[in-house]
Amino acid sequence: MEPGLTAAHFAALGNHATCLLELVAHGADVHMPTESDEISFRPIHLTRVNKHMEALSVLKDAGGDVESPFTHYILRTPKPQGGYTYNLMGAYHGEF
């Protein structure tokens, strides 16, 4: 994974809405982008591209901007034998 990912990035990637609610309740910045000059995305971007609607709802309610720009994202894909594959992808230009 890319350096600079926060707990909110991981919670968003896994669609862990309850974890995001706890982070918000304890004052965490759930909108912090990654800490890289070449790669920039926020937790809300991970919820959008992976269609994690529960986590997306939490981040929107916490003031997240669903239209904020980003350069890359992580796509989470289920494996047939269980578990997931994670791939760093270029900017997404499709509909959400």
Automatic annotation (TrEMBL):
Ribonucleoprotein keyword on record: no
Q: Which InterPro entries match?
A: Ankyrin_rpt, Ankyrin_rpt-contain_sf
Provide the species name: Xylaria bambusicola
The residue ranges crossing the membrane are: none
Outline the ANK repeats, range by range: 3-35
Q: What is this protein called?
A: Ankyrin repeat protein
Tell me the domain of life. Eukaryota
Keywords (alphabetical) are: ANK repeat
